[in-house]
Each structure stands twice: as C-alpha cells, then as structure tokens.
Amino acid sequence: MIAFVHGQVATVGLSSAVLEVGGVGLELLCTPGTLASLRVGQSATLPTSMVVREDSLTLFGFLDDDEKACFELVQTASGVGPKLAQAVLAVLAPDDLRRAVSAEDVKTLTRVPGIGQKGAQRIILELKDRLGAPVGGRSAPAAASAEPWREQVATGLVGLGWSAKDAEKAVDAVAPEAGPVPDVAALLRAALRSLSRA
Q1: Where in the numbering of this chain does the Helix-hairpin-helix DNA-binding motif class domain appear (predicted)?
Q2: Domain assignment of residue 132, yes or no
C-alpha cells in the first residue's frame, strides 16, 4: 500500500493532480479542496489511499491524515464506495461529517450527491460510534452549506490558478445553469469557458 506521495506537482486538473515522484507521474484523485492547495511546480506531500479493483489501481490523495482516515472509514458503511466517500469529503470537511453523524443530521448528509435519505440514515447508524467527536480541524465555509457546488467550483478554479475574485465572478455567471441537482464538473467547465471569454 502507498501511504503517502511526495513530489513536484506536475499538473492540477478538475478532479485529479499528477505528482512527479522519481521520474514517474502518479495521478491522484482529490477533492476540490485538496486540489486548491496544490500549485504546479511546487513540492507537495499528500497522504494517499490505494483502491485495488480487478481492472484498476486508483490512488486517492488527501489534504491531511484526518481526511484520509475519514475517507477509509466512510467506505466501511454498506453501499459506500471510494467515489461516494470522496464526494462526502468534497462537500463536508472531516469535522463537519463527524458533527452531522453524531447529531444524526440526515439533511446535511443528503447534500452529498449520491446520498439519499436511506443512505444517510445507514451511514449514521453504521458510523455513529466509530467516527468520534470533532477534533477541531478545519470546517467547510458557511456559504457552502447553502449551495455546496458553488464552493466546489470556486475551489477548483482557484486550484487551476485563477484568483478568488475571478473564481467568484465565474461562479455567479454560471449559477443560473445549476438547476436542482448541480453537475459540478459541467459547471466548472462552464465557469472556465466564461473566464476564457473574459
């Protein structure tokens, strides 16, 4: 198992980053928050979790060990795979997740794309005694609670090198396209198009 990766950031994409380690480029799937902390050309160390499937080896990268631990623990809930676990951490910081589970806050958990009422109740039931209390780490910004996609798109744009001010303008420009179930990747592409036209 690969516990962490340390190397120079070669590229930062919409959902992954490539770190050059000993002349080899390793692609790590990351949340928008993690991608926003990376800068091309700079050195970075990311805790990782490797998911082995019959037809693939996938490396997930995290901001810190706490995020990695939550990612691995959330997957122990029935019906939660690595992609859904990553989506949980894209919407909720580890402490926000702990608070939602300990308070049995189904509404907060259903903000995660792919988690419905029953899925949220199952996560609460199976993880309540295992996630523990909040450890006082970072929290997701308050604005994200209303529309998590806005924060995800803005964070992705900042991670790609745009200023926070430009990112906010682009998010506002694509907001009418969001709809009831926002497609974050499509909105991010639309935001990039609006920035390239500006």
Answers
A1: 72-91, 107-126
A2: no
Domain that holds residue 105: 65-127
Query: Would the pTM of this model clear 0.90, i.e. be above it?
Result: no
Lowest average pLDDT, out of 61-70, 80-89, 183-192, goes to 183-192
Whole-number pLDDT of residue 38: 92
Query: Which CATH number characterizes residue 174's domain?
Result: 1.10.8.10
Q: Phi-psi bin for 22: left (phi > 0), alpha (psi -120 to 50), beta?
A: left
Mean pLDDT of the chain: 86
